[in-house]
Design brief:
With about 260 residues, the protein is an alpha/beta fold. It has helices spanning about 1-10, 65-80, 85-95, 130-140, 170-175, 200-210, and strands spanning about 50-60, 110-115, 145, 150, 175-180, 190-195, 220-225, 235-245, 250-255. The protein has a single domain, classed as 3-Layer(aba) Sandwich (Rossmann fold). A 7-stranded mixed sheet has the order 3-2-6-7-1-8-9, sandwiched between helices. The chain has a two-stranded antiparallel sheet with strand order 4-5. It starts with a helix and ends with a strand.
Length: about 260
């Protein structure tokens, strides 16, 4: 709101370089960046962007000792590092099984895929897992195009190593992101990530994307969903669709 008021008053001002009796040229369009979006660390619970619908294909157990849990950790590591072509193999298997999953609401040939940035600004030649996943999804027809519209400007802590109470909030994620000057004729945007824990990154991206794509539905997809509150998982492949919202402390809450 402060930014809008500032721009309103600036529209009536003429810089000193303007000749008498003339008006300044209209300012170039301003692409909002994260600090201009949230004036406080909180988002109202009735925010029309909430809850965010997300889908996931695999389940991952951080601490389980059963076979499925141990395999899930190996697969999760392979996806995060794209070891041995894990991303391509996983996406191709998802394509084969897609009709039997509930993921048609977040993936499909009409979705524009927006890869989630890594926890730190991407270095030249560095691996961008979410971008690799999005590219493979488009190859198999589970996406229309890839739109790398969100970048990380400052590093944040990684969820995988965050201790209790130390996870990065949606507000902190949002403050570390920026929109690239990219436009798409999107019917639906799906944010793509490798792993979803609580969903703070996905929620922050949805808020940021809404500033440019105000009338476009936004959903999210992660290949892997962390299942941290139960000791074991029965199987690796557990496709699901759920929601991400905020609790009373403005922390992300994912169901399931």
């Amino acid at each position: 709101m402060t930014f809008m008021i500032f721009m309103f008053f600036m529209s009536f001002m003429c810089p000193p370089s303007c000749p008498p009796g003339t008006s300044p040229a209209p300012p170039p369009p301003v692409i909002p960046t994260a600090p201009e979006l949230w004036e406080t660390p909180r988002v109202a619970h009735d925010d029309p962007r909430l809850p965010l619908t997300f889908g996931a294909y695999l389940a991952y157990s951080p601490r389980g000792i059963a076979d499925a849990s141990r395999i899930s950790r190996s697969v999760c590591y392979g996806i995060k590092h794209d070891a041995g072509g894990t991303i391509e193999r996983t996406v191709r298997r998802l394509k084969r099984e897609f009709a039997a999953t509930p993921l048609a609401s977040v993936l499909g040939p009409r979705m524009t895929l927006v890869p989630a940035p890594r926890s730190a600004p991407l270095l030249p030649g560095g691996l961008w897992p979410a971008r690799r996943i999005a590219d493979e999804l488009v190859k198999v027809g589970l996406g229309r195009e890839v739109l790398p519209a969100v970048t990380r400007t400052t590093p944040v802590g990684r969820s995988a190593v965050a201790g209790a109470g130390m996870r990065v909030s949606p507000h902190e994620h949002l403050a570390s992101m920026a929109l690239e000057p990219l436009i798409a004729d999107a019917v639906q945007l799906t944010i793509v990530d490798d792993v979803v824990t609580r969903g703070a990154t996905l929620l922050a991206m949805a808020v940021l994307l809404t500033t440019r794509f105000r009338d476009v539905p936004i959903t999210a997809f992660a290949v892997v969903r962390t299942v941290g509150l139960q000791a074991e998982i029965p199987t690796l492949i557990q496709p699901c669709v759920g929601t991400i919202c905020l609790d009373e402390l403005a922390c992300a809450v994912r169901q399931p």
